[in-house]
């Protein structure tokens, strides 16, 4: 298994969107420009280890998942729980 910047970027984008962050909001939170984040999400620019660590802390997800796509059961459950919470919040807003 090797690091693939395109796949890593897709995982970061998916995490960001599932948590309801715009690219601008998330870039601000991790102290980079929106253009830098856009390049990372598209796989045109690889992230530094420091930035990947910051993203993993922000999303409470393992570096193994961000870098290699390895899903630990704990990470999978967390991600599913966040998706359910997002759906419930949307329903709440619609009521």
Main traits of this protein?
95 residues, globular, 6 helices
Please outline the helices and strands.
Layout: H1 5-18, H2 23-29, H3 34-41, H4 49-59, H5 63-68, H6 73-94
Helix pairs in contact: 2-3
Descriptive overview:
It is a single chain. This protein is an all-alpha fold and 95 residues long. It has one domain (5-94): 434 Repressor (Amino-terminal Domain) (Orthogonal Bundle), CATH 1.10.260. Helix content is 72%, strand content 0%. The protein contains 6 helices and no strands. Helix 2 (23-29) crosses helix 3. The longest helix has 22 residues, at 73-94. The chain is globular, with a radius of gyration of 14 Å. It starts with a helix and ends with a helix.
Structural class: mainly alpha
**Tell me, what is the CATH class?**
Mainly Alpha
The portion of residues forming beta strands comes to under 5%
Specify the helix fraction band.
over 70%
Radius of gyration: 14 Å
Distance separating the two termini: 46 Å
Shape: globular
Quick overview:
This protein is 72% helix and 0% strand. The chain contains 6 helices and no strands.
